[in-house]
Write a structure and sequence with these properties.
The protein has three helices and three strands. It is 45% helix and 20% strand. A three-stranded antiparallel beta sheet has the order 1-2-3, covered by helices on one side. The chain is α+β, with helices and mostly antiparallel strands and 107 residues long.
């Protein structure tokens, strides 16, 4: 049972940021906190197919947000430990979604 358990993963620690490399490519990389320096590339995205630049930028933003989203999911799961038995049906759906996303990100 993973309910309420903080999930650990071996991903590159955040924060991650996205930057354009040129007109066709974007990069998502780990931010070092020093302008112009990174801690490693996470991925590159290309807008050379039919998706276009706006969709690729949206994808890059979503990928760059992944460490923060995982942290938020873990916080929600941790809060659930204190609210057990007092959770509404609607929030139960949220918890289930957060748990599934967290498991997907960490296993």
């Amino acid at each position: 049972n993973n309910k309420g358990k903080i999930m650990q993963t071996k991903n590159t620690p955040g924060p991650w940021i996205h930057t354009p490399l040129n007109l066709m490519y974007l990069s998502v990389h780990a931010d070092s906190g020093n302008p112009g320096k990174t801690r490693g590339r996470i991925c590159e995205l290309s807008s050379i197919d039919n998706r276009g630049r706006f969709e690729e930028e949206a994808n890059a933003r979503l990928i760059a947000a992944a460490p923060d989203l995982l942290k938020a999911c873990n916080a929600v799961l941790h809060c659930n430990d204190y609210a057990e038995g007092r959770v509404t049906a609607e929030f139960s759906v949220v918890l289930d979604t957060v748990l599934k996303a967290t498991i997907k990100a960490t296993t």
